[in-house]
Write a structure and sequence with these properties.
Elements: H1 2-20, E1 22-28, H2 30-38, H3 40-47, E2 49-54, H4 58-67, E3 73-76, H5 82-85, E4 89-103, E5 110-111, H6 113-121, H7 127-130, E6 140-144, H8 149-158, E7 170-172, H9 178-184, E8 190-195, E9 206-208, E10 210-211, H10 218-222, E11 229-236, H11 243-254, E12 266-267
Parallel strand pairs: 1-2, 1-3, 5-10, 6-7, 6-8
Antiparallel strand pairs: 3-11, 4-8, 4-9, 4-11, 4-12
């Protein structure tokens, strides 16, 4: 009997921290969901908060999940609409920025905002139509078919409300797949606008273009000289019964000593 009690006490000490951890269900954009998923064990150890993360729904899927009480938190890479903000609360954890990317060897290094608009509206379909100095090749933009934060950001930054997206793209399920497709494309005129964090690991094969002559360096983004940044946020309902664990997680992600993002995103530290 005593041996059994001692064994049970040992198990309690061994598993007690994990068993007592509050578990937060999270879904949404991969920009934030993926690092949360990869760091779940560390967060459980450091703050005793368990995470169940689904990074397949994008910003819109995450917002729907919180709205209908399917998840506790949504990873979202855009601002909430006025209607969404009446029910949901949004916390900016970090800042991401969009970059225009081509193959490394492609002989274009800079685009203007107007040229990007022409590409994504479809009013220009060949590179030479953008600039006589550009190669006479077909423009092959990559985009996801699904409604996403990236699409909304492209509309916000580069397209007027009345200008629709072009009809033909090289489609991917999510924009995290865009760098791989861009590298593997036989056509040299491929281009994608995506989160700068997505091209990590492809730096030797892909090139980030300057926009209006400005490169997306950390300094240029933080000073707003490079204007194409977007908030990386967590969205939740303040009436959520796990509200205290949500606040603890947010404090952890913002803690400069933790340095959670380690250079992949620009942290929104207090």
């Amino acid at each position: 009997m005593y041996l059994f009690l001692a064994f049970f006490a040992l198990l309690t000490l061994w598993f007690g921290t994990e068993a007592s951890a509050d578990v937060l269900k999270i879904s949404g954009a991969k920009t934030l969901c993926t690092p949360l998923m990869e760091s779940a064990d560390r967060i459980r150890t450091d703050r005793h908060i368990g995470l169940m993360v689904d990074n397949k729904g994008g910003s819109e899927g995450g917002i729907r999940g919180v709205y209908f009480n399917k998840v506790d938190l949504a990873c979202v890479v855009r601002r909430l609409t006025e209607k969404e903000g009446r029910i949901l609360h949004q916390e900016t954890i970090a800042f991401d920025y969009l970059v225009a990317v081509t193959k490394k060897e492609f002989p274009v290094n800079n685009l203007t905002k107007e040229q990007v608009q022409s590409i994504y509206s479809g009013s220009r379909t060949r590179w030479r139509e953008l600039d006589p100095a550009f190669p006479d090749l077909s423009i092959e933009p990559i985009l996801t078919r699904k409604k996403s934060g990236t699409i909304e950001n492209i509309r916000t930054f580069f397209l007027d409300e009345e200008i629709p997206l072009r009809n033909e793209f090289r489609y991917v399920n999510t924009m995290t797949s865009a760098p791989k497709l861009l590298v593997e494309m036989q056509e040299p005129g491929g281009i994608a606008i995506m989160s700068q964090s997505f091209i990590l690991g492809y730096e030797d094969q892909l090139k980030i273009l300057s926009l209006d002559g400005v490169l997306p360096t950390r300094e240029n983004v933080l000073s707003a000289i490079y204007p194409y940044s977007r908030p990386v946020t967590l969205v939740y309902k303040e009436k959520n019964k796990r509200f205290l664990s949500i606040r603890r997680l947010i404090r952890y992600l913002r803690d400069p000593e933790v340095n959670f993002f380690q250079g992949t995103l620009l942290p929104n530290n207090p």
